[in-house]
Fold this sequence. Notes:
Number of strands: 4
Mean pLDDT: 84
CATH superfamily of the largest domain: Winged helix-like DNA-binding domain superfamily/Winged helix DNA-binding domain
Oligomer: single chain
Strand order of the largest sheet: 1-2
Radius of gyration: 18 Å
Number of helices: 6
Low-confidence stretches: 1-13
Number of domains: 2
Largest sheet: 2 strands, antiparallel
Amino acid sequence: MDKAVDEPGSRVAAVTTPADDAFCSIERTVGIVGDRWTLLILRETLIRGATRFGELGESLGIAPNVLTNRLDQLTRSGILEKREYREAGSRPRMAYHPTDAGRELLLVLAALGQWGDDHIPPASGVAETREVAATGQRVRVGFVADPTVLLPTEKVAFVHTPEGAVPGPLHPSGPRY
């Protein structure tokens, strides 16, 4: 594991990666989040708000041992943190909540979703749109030159759409930004 730098005023998060000897940031990041199950777990925690093992297992249909492995990796890597909870009459259990570094991966998920909407949308329409939470205005992920006009991720809502409700961007009647 790498030695994370977390100095005052630093934007470097306390995240560790199994590819700590890699020079490329993409390679180091893919070492943590680069498989299907990990990305889907992040989708469930960051977009849909699932934090409990049972919720994640049920929504994803993932084998318990695979889910345990991925949650352990995300926790060790500083992307999720464990928080204890207890339901009445039950033993204490752990919930998995995104850290600040984990919440920043929302942009990665948005970019993946946007790419999928643009290039491989299902015939029945996109699964989610990305919108300004307060106004419903659709947003797109992109590069910006002026960071003072960035829309904070907490102001963006991922809105689940019923099948066929919103045509994909490549559909003749779909929006194209």
